[in-house]
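Sample 1 of the test manifest.
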Amino acid sequence: MKHALSLVVLSILALAGTAHADQPVYHATDAPEATPVVYIGGIKPAMDQGTWLHGIFNQLEGRYAPGGTDFRWDGEAWFGGDYNKIWLKSEGTLEKGRLSDGDHELLYTRSISSYWNLQGGVRMDLDDGPTRTWGAFGVQGLALYEFEFEATAYVSDRGRFAARVEGSYDFLLTNRLILQPQAEFNFYTKSDAGRQAGAGLSDVDAGLRLRYELWRKFAPYVAVTYSGYLTQARRITRDQHDDTGSVRFSLGVRSWF
Amino acid sequence: MIFPSRFRGGLTRRRFVTGIGAGGLLAALPRTSHALSSTAVPLGGSPLRASSGIIPPTPFNRWDLKVGHTRISLDGKTMHAPTVGGTVPGPILRFKQGDTVSINVTNTLDEPTSIHWHGIRTPANMDGVPGLSFGGIAPGETFTYRFKLHQSGTYWYHSHSGMQEAMGLYGAMVIDPRRPDPNACDRDYVIFLAEWTDVMPHDIVSNLKMQDDYYVFRQRTAASFPKEAREAESAGAALADRLAWSKMRMAATDIADVSGAIYTYTLNGHAPDMNWSGLFRPGEKVRLRFINGSTMTFFDIRIPGLEMLVVQADGNDIEPIPVDEFRIGVAETYDVIVQPKDERAYAIFAQSEDRTGYARGTLAPREGMIAPLPPMDPRPVRTMVDMGMGNMKPGESMKDTDMSDDMSGMKMGGDMAGMDMHGMNMKGMDMSHMAMLKMEVDDPGPPPINVENQMRAMMPIDRTGSPGDGLENNGRRVLNYKQLRATRPGADLRPPTREIILHLTGNMERYIWGFNGRKFSESGPIRLKLGERVRFTLINDTMMEHPIHLHGLWSELENGQGDYRPYKHTIISQPGSKLSYLVTADTPGMWAYHCHLMYHMDLGMFRTVIVA
């Protein structure tokens, strides 16, 4: 015991010693100062605190089926600077004149690392079904190998929990012809028959889109899409005599500003 | 309108390019653009009053410049551009070393403007940077710049307000030496390289913020894979390389942020199809003063069939270096001398580093001649060296790297010039002990990986001996920084008493740039004591070149030439490299210090240097 203790002390001493010898005292010449520099006329010589406004429709498409065509959109827009942004997400499906899967989120977004953002705010399920309100919190960013990824957890005003995971990848066939696999998964802790949500993995919306960037901001695409309910949600939907899932041929446009 | 408001007495000993008599000067100067390129009419536009490249026949010490908006069409791209005197580039200003010059700049824009004299050592209040030197020139106002010219050579001027420089507010300056010019030639032309686009700078930045490779259409794709596999001699190796890059969330094809997709590359304001021409008689010596006044583009320049003798860099004479090709970073200048012997046309071929286009001109014995253009080279691909992994192959240990460069560097000049500092940043600390010189070292340590920085160069190497990415081993003699040797020893031979280590950092994905992992607005100034001799050491943790420009003070590049180290105003820091230069802080005031890629500067790669 005594032996072990002295060993610990020795190693601590040794560590402290090496730390002292090896670690230089870092000092950045351009470290921020307590009193900022006074610029003539208050003019900053570089404008690196700009704010930017962008928006994108990742999906704006018709999904064809013999029984009728669904129209689907999935888009987001944001405004802000390098660290703080207001972020709006919206998606929904128009199906035989009925709006479903209407999910709209207003999030504050904070940049936390080179590629990742934290997001927090409100989600509204707003469509022709019953309206639900959720608090939202998640991460969004660029994963290893340049996968776009976002994961968000939700807690509803009725104390229920949900989660959504979404990812996509751009596979460049040429510099303008791009194949994008994309998938979105929704999870719920409790079923909500009114919204065709089931406990556990509830629904999937996935697509394989081949777009051609006529110019960067405008790219028509053809796609194979799948939208469907799984596990408990599948039973709920079937009981409501609704479509439990189908693969569709789709045409759309990816566009942003 | 621009015109020299007062003549200097008499003509200088320098010969003139054209035969304009002194009597016709006043009338001829504003219209010199018509002297050689009267046939230059842009596609679908009014005749463009681009620059002839002809230097005014005599120097003047007073100029009146008017900054205003001019509608200019070039290559089908129309822009209501801010200009000096109605042309892009603006007029070539010729001065005489030793003169005290006064330049009245009148602003007829509806926004503030400014003119910065790039590379000129002026008092701080004449440097023309709004916020640092003065309050800018308000609309309708005239500001008089007045300073003594202590130097000679080729320089340029540009706006330092907003994005005016990116839109066309720039021009050349030529200062005659007081003593006979060792590089005087029969012909003398300014070759001003730039870009032209009708996309507004704000929109370009906005697009880059959304998608960093917005203007890059030369990515590796499935279609290009077979070619890469052939080059790598195995599909597995090509795939492994691709996966390594995508794992890092970066692109080996990231050469230039803004490309020929929107830029028309110009030579003296001429698009390639307008073919600017400079005349010569066979056997004559022709001096070409290359200035890279572009916003975002590095050019690789050659004149097939002619050897170029590089005689000046950034306005300072150097020992002549014969080359076939050289790279010019944004804001650098190089003077070269060529001696075409044959009665034929020669192409001045300046391809952009990313090979998405070129600027072009012709040297010819008669007007209207066209020389064949060489094919463009393959676009460079970034490697592990650019990633700051040194010359290591993956898995190789650091002990294996050759340190012999360091020793040879030590022997030269005794100023540790050209020292190849392999290894970590800590090496900077060790070095001060080795040199037996008590030197303060401001080492920020490895830059943080954060929102504003995505990378850390683990083993930055000395790349001053490299001509740059895409030019190595191309079979031609290409200029590199190690070759630059001043014709006279430096003015201040004191060793530095302080070393300032700065990391060049950025996040391409978010399009944020800075030093030490911070953008401008989050940093303090760099403070230098008046009279202090400082070594700046730049470690480039990004995978792009950055032309770093220090206003008001010379940057003496430590390239192994000892006391004959070249004086520069703009120094290219190559990706994954470490280099150093010496600065004598002899002029008090607030100075700008920044990357001269304009969109890098404006998005944070900028510092204020305060000399007091």
